[in-house]
Structure formats: structure tokens, C-alpha cells
Design brief:
By secondary structure, this protein is of the alpha+beta class. Among the domains are: 72 residues, Winged helix-like DNA-binding domain superfamily/Winged helix DNA-binding domain (Arc Repressor Mutant, subunit A); 72 residues, SH3 type barrels, CATH 2.30.30; 77 residues, Roll (SH3 type barrels), CATH 2.30.30. It contains 12 helices and 13 strands. Strands 3-8-4-5-6-7 form a 6-stranded antiparallel beta sheet. Strands 12-11-10-9-13 form a 5-stranded antiparallel beta sheet. A hairpin with a 2-residue loop joins strand 6 and strand 7. Helix 2 packs across helix 4 and helix 5 runs parallel beside helix 7. The radius of gyration is 27 Å and the shape is globular.
């Protein structure tokens, strides 16, 4: 004969287990169902973004390219394309797969969220540069358009992500950007890096390890089909052409050299005004966040006013406040000297 207490305990356990499995919204089955729907939505959005990326570089998305990008079977890729077609986000014909107007708007919202999140990681956290892309790939599927707009406002509505890519506006406007790759730059010219492609990760990490970042200056010494030889900061080295194609540059005026460092706050005399051009990519995380919060953005006027007895730190007048910066911090802030002293322009 079964002990009534044991039977009661068994019944209670079954009830608890059943509730844990089937409880609406918080039960295990409900969570698994939500995770499944999220995974399906993520795959659909990733497929749509891949088609957008192909169009942006002048290619056409295919069943095989989608399967390869998403690391799924061609059968799964076909099912995703069918679903996107039903949702009127893509259309497919003999020429390949292309986005509809609605699909392009949706893809640009993903791109906007992705690039805003990378900007946030670069400016406001200590996350290593090599991890920005993967983290943004995850977050682009979780932030709503309203949350993305709030993030943009918090960051001061940036126009560019930390790799040099333009950030779409809330309305989906995206400026056309002409790219000259380092692999195509003419020998004998000095160039400035304006964009680093962050995929594949291995090449991006190699570029970072070489000290390349936005704003870096390079003298192009020689170029062949396999390598580009560059010089900067007193050293010369070769870059494989496949790596150099991931670096976009702009020509600097003839006569400029990569060995001529850009002027920083350290080049200002007491009382002399400098206008901020940018903050060096070498400054990241909490240090960068502090400078941005102080108003150190492009166009801000900065004047050194008080120098400590040892020469370090120096108190700078920034947006009406005196801010003490140490030498290594001042060296991160690149400026152009104002032609008129601060007193004369007041």
C-alpha cells in the first residue's frame, strides 16, 4: 500500500514539473518556442542583410552565397528566401535575389543599429576592437528602432562608425562613399586611412596589430600585384595585396609625409587656441568616454591656460571649464591651430 504522504509529494512534484514546462510565457516550453522564433527571425534578418551587402558592393545575392554566409544548408537558405519573398522583402528572378523597397528599409535599420552599437563599444566601453563586430551582430537583432534612436542621441548622433562606414539616418539615408583601396594607391603618394573592413576577422586583427587605424598616415613606397610597401612612423614594411584591399584611403596633398605627426594639444602654447579635429583611435573605452563627455568633439576650441610646476598636467579651457589633462591624454587630441588668438576672437 502506498503511503498517502508519498503519493501527495509525488503528485505535488508532478504539478510543479508540469507548471515549469507549460506555464504561459515563463514556462520552459514557452521559452524554447520564443528562442526558436528568435532564431528564425535572426536568420531571416541576416539573410536580408546579406542581400543588402551584396547590392552595396555591386554583386547579386544568390542561394549559395546566403547559405555560405549564414552557415546553413542550401535547403534552409531556400526556405528563408521563400519566407522573405512572402513578406515582400526580396524578389528573386533569373538575375538573382534583390531587395524590395521595404526590404531595403528594413536592412538599413539593421545596418544603422549595428554601426551605432559599434560606435558605442568603441567610445564608451573597453571592449577590444576585434570584438566590436561580433557583439554588434548580436545586438542589431535585439534593439528596437526607438532604442537605436535613443542610443544615437546618447552618442551625439554620430555620422560614422569606428571603421569609417557611414551610419544610416533614421529615415534610411546613406551617403554614397567613393573608396580608394590601399592596394590601388599610387606609389610616391601619402595617404590617410579612412576605412578598415572588419571582415574577415583575421585580416582586421592583422591590420590592428600593424598599428593601422582611422586617421593613420602612410607613405606608399612600392606596389606590385602581390604586395604594397608602405612607410610610417619611421619604419617601412610590406602589406599583402589581399590585406591592403581591406584598407580604404584618401590622398593627402603632395608634399605631406607620414613621418610628419599631426598636431595635438601638446603643440599649443599657453593662451593659444586649437580646434579639435578628432580623438586618436588609440584612445578608447572610459578614457575616450571622458573626453567626449567633456565636449572634446570636432570643432571644439581648446586653450591651455595653466601649467603645473612640473609641466604635467596642463589645465585646458574647454567649453568654459578648466580641465586638467596629462601629457598622454593631450597627445590623443588632434587639433589645428587657430589663426587668431583666443583673446582677439573674443
Amino acid at each position: 500500500m502506498v503511503d498517502p504522504l508519498v503519493a501527495l509529494l509525488v503528485f505535488a512534484g508532478v504539478c510543479v514539473l508540469g507548471a515549469a514546462l507549460a506555464w504561459p510565457r515563463t514556462g520552459l516550453l514557452a521559452r524554447v518556442a520564443r528562442a526558436s522564433r528568435l532564431t528564425e527571425r535572426v536568420l531571416l534578418e541576416d539573410a536580408m542583410k546579406h542581400v543588402y551587402t551584396c547590392e552595396a558592393i555591386g554583386r547579386t545575392g544568390t542561394l549559395e552565397s546566403i547559405a555560405g554566409q549564414l552557415e546553413v544548408s542550401t535547403g534552409k537558405a531556400a526556405a528563408l528566401l521563400s519566407r522573405l519573398t512572402e513578406m515582400e522583402l526580396v524578389h528573386t528572378d533569373e538575375a538573382g535575389t534583390r531587395l524590395t523597397a521595404q526590404g531595403r528599409d528594413s536592412a538599413l535599420r539593421l545596418v544603422r543599429t549595428h554601426r551605432l552599437w559599434e560606435r558605442y563599444l568603441a567610445d564608451r566601453t573597453g571592449v577590444p576592437a576585434g570584438e566590436w563586430h561580433a557583439e554588434a551582430e548580436r545586438m542589431e537583432h535585439t534593439l528596437s528602432p526607438a532604442e537605436a534612436d535613443a542610443l544615437a542621441a546618447r552618442l551625439g548622433h554620430p555620422a560614422w562608425d569606428p571603421h569609417g562606414d557611414p551610419i544610416p539616418t533614421p529615415g534610411g539615408e546613406l551617403p554614397a562613399v567613393e573608396r580608394l583601396t590601399l592596394a590601388a594607391a599610387a606609389p610616391g603618394r601619402t595617404v590617410e586611412v579612412v576605412h578598415l573592413e572588419d571582415e574577415p576577422r583575421e585580416i582586421y586583427d592583422a591590420l590592428l596589430a600593424d598599428g593601422l587605424g582611422l586617421g593613420a598616415r602612410l607613405d606608399v613606397r612600392e606596389r606590385s600585384e602581390s604586395t604594397v610597401r608602405v612607410r610610417a612612423r619611421g619604419r617601412e614594411w610590406p602589406l599583402a595585396a589581399v590585406v591592403a584591399r581591406n584598407v580604404s584611403v584618401r590622398y593627402l596633398p603632395v608634399g605631406e609625409s607620414a613621418d610628419e605627426p599631426a598636431e595635438t594639444l601638446l603643440d599649443l602654447d599657453p593662451g593659444q587656441t586649437g580646434r579639435v579635429l578628432d580623438i586618436s583611435p588609440a584612445c578608447s573605452g572610459s578614457q575616450r568616454r571622458r573626453l567626449l563627455d567633456l565636449g572634446v568633439v570636432k570643432g571644439t576650441e581648446v586653450v591651455p591656460e595653466l601649467v603645473s610646476a612640473g609641466g604635467d598636467p596642463v589645465a585646458y579651457r574647454i567649453r568654459g571649464a578648466l580641465v586638467a589633462l596629462r601629457r598622454e591624454q593631450a597627445e590623443w587630441i588632434r587639433i589645428e591651430k587657430a589663426s587668431v588668438p583666443a583673446e582677439a576672437s573674443a
